[in-house]
């Protein structure tokens, strides 16, 4: 628990000070006028990829547990949901991490973005079974209490 | 270009990217967790809603770590402000104020609408910039490549439509 809080705090601080949680830098990226966000995401992927490869080869976490990575399913929602999320990222100038960061920074409008995001996720969960067939979403495995 | 936050200058992109990689790898190596933020929306919803989706194992198993993680994100933003000139509430929104310039109520409505797209879209896609864009791409996962290309396309199209087409912004000086 304290570890997640600490890593979240570091992540939030970096997002805050890099432009990733800044409306102008997000628009600058989508306008092809600022390299900053492309540089951040590109560097993060370029360094995480070999790190992941090495960690998987090593195969164990710091406490000696076997490394387990939950893979995300492939379905039509990747395309449709990605497009919709892109519209929202542009409108709010924030992706999910920066919504929380901007609230911490004191940007009052970010609270409305969070309310919208929770409502959007709530709507999605509510109509999940109706979208399932059309978008080939995976079946739900109900919580058995063992997770 | 300074940040909106206290008009601070941002850190270099290479430093920020390296720090994000360190957090991503740290989360996996120390706690066996796959980086991802938008699942946090499900976690919060699952505290309030009881539909089958919010009772699924995939949603419930993430709560114990993702909730403290997103509280950390809020704390990180708060500390960044406190250590960088002081914390204060603000409505400042840069280019939006210069070009579109709605009042407070209009801004809240705009942000709520944007949030709806973010919440619905990320849950439908199964992840956001962190889980698909950083972790998934780094792990060479096809669904993450499709999602990342899609959200970049959606964002580029929307910003270009709003600022270039509707409001005729030629160059944004910041």
Q: Can you describe this structure?
A:
The complex is a heterodimer of chains A (147) and B (174). Helices cover 68% and strands 0% of the residues of chain A. Chain A starts with a helix and ends in a 12-residue tail after the last helix. Chain A is an all-alpha fold and 147 residues long. Chain B is mainly α and 174 residues long. Chain B has 8 helices and no strands. The N and C termini of chain B lie close together (6 Å). Classes of the chains: A mainly alpha (147), B mainly alpha (174). Chains A and B meet through helix 1, helix 2, helix 3, helix 4 and helix 5 of A and helix 1, helix 2, helix 3, helix 4 and helix 6 of B.
Question: How would you describe this structure in keywords?
Answer:
heterodimer; A: 147 residues; mainly alpha; 68% helix; globular; B: 174 residues
- Uncertain runs of chain B: none
Distance between the termini of chain B: 6 Å
Rg of chain B: 18 Å
Q: Encode the helix/strand succession of chain A as letters.
A: HHHHHHH
Determine the mean pLDDT of chain B.
Answer: 95
Secondary-structure-based class of chain A equals mainly alpha
**Beta-strand percentage of chain B?**
under 5%
User: What's the β-strand tally of chain B?
Assistant: 0
Mean pLDDT of chain A: 95
List the helices and strands and how they pair.
The complex is a heterodimer of chains A (147) and B (174).
Chain A: H1 2-18, H2 23-30, H3 36-58, H4 77-92, H5 96-105, H6 109-126, H7 128-135
Helix pairs in contact in A: 1-5, 5-6
Chain B: H1 13-31, H2 39-48, H3 57-60, H4 63-83, H5 95-99, H6 104-125, H7 129-138, H8 142-166
Helix pairs in contact in B: 2-4, 7-8
């Amino acid at each position: 628990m304290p570890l997640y809080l600490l890593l979240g705090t570091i992540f939030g601080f970096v997002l805050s000070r890099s432009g990733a949680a800044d409306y102008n830098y997000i628009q600058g990226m989508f306008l092809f006028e600022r390299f900053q966000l492309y540089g951040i995401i590109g560097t993060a992927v370029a360094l995480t990829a070999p790190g992941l490869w090495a960690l998987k080869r090593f195969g164990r976490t710091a406490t000696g547990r076997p490394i387990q990575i939950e893979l995300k399913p492939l379905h039509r929602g990747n395309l449709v949901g990605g497009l919709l999320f892109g519209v929202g990222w542009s409108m709010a100038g924030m992706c999910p991490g920066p919504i929380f960061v901007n609230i911490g920074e004191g940007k009052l409008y970010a609270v409305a973005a969070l309310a919208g995001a929770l409502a959007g996720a709530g709507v999605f969960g509510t109509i999940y079974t109706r979208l399932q067939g059309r978008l080939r979403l995976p079946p739900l495995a109900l919580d058995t209490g063992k997770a | 270009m300074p940040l909106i936050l206290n008009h601070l200058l941002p850190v270099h992109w290479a430093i920020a990217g390296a720090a994000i990689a360190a957090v991503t790898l740290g989360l996996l190596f120390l706690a066996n967790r796959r980086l991802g933020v938008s699942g946090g929306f499900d976690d919060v919803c699952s505290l309030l809603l009881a539909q089958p989706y919010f009772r699924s194992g995939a949603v419930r198993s993430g709560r114990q770590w993702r909730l403290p993680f997103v509280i950390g994100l809020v704390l990180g933003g708060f500390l960044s402000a406190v250590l960088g000139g002081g914390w204060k509430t603000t409505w400042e929104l840069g280019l939006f104020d210069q070009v579109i310039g709605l009042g407070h109520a209009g801004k809240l409505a705009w942000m709520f609408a944007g949030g709806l797209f973010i919440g619905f879209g990320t849950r439908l896609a199964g992840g956001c910039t962190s889980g698909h864009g950083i972790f998934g791409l780094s792990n060479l996962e096809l669904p993450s490549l499709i999602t990342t290309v899609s959200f970049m396309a959606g964002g580029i199209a929307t910003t270009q439509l709003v600022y270039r087409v509707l409001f005729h912004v030629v160059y944004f000086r910041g």
